[in-house]
Write a structure and sequence with these properties.
It is built from no helices and 11 strands. With 117 residues, it is mainly beta.
Length: 117
């Protein structure tokens, strides 16, 4: 299994920045990539960004392109999500997840991000 712990959420004004961290432990060798997802109240969970452990390939949801940056520190088994130019619609619980070859298998407990207008 892979254990994931997110941190770095909080309350920020619109236009501000936050950096989320996701520390992974356990059977990390089974993890091909790491993803960030978010879920706002009353809405379905949506994909935000992802990065592969091996080559650092990155993927972003259209609404965060140019504002969010996903990165990984393999030595620390930690993935980051740098969020700039935050908007009220970015308010959500953000989860990181570990992806095997076919699907996201393990999830963190989430961290709350609240952007005030």
């Amino acid at each position: 299994q892979v254990q994931l712990v997110e941190s770095g959420g909080g309350l920020v004004q619109a236009g501000g920045s936050l950096r989320l961290s996701c520390a992974a432990s356990g059977r990390i060798s089974s993890s091909y990539a790491m993803g960030w997802f978010r879920q706002a109240p009353g809405k379905e969970r949506e994909f935000v960004a992802a990065i592969t452990w091996s080559g650092g390939s990155t993927y972003y949801e259209d609404s965060v392109k140019g504002r969010f940056t996903v990165s990984a520190d393999n030595a620390k088994n930690t993935v980051y999500l740098q969020m700039n130019s935050l908007k009220p619609e970015d308010t959500a619980v953000y989860h990181c997840a570990s992806r095997g070859l076919q699907r996201y298998e393990y999830w963190g407990q989430g961290t709350q991000v609240t952007v005030s207008s």
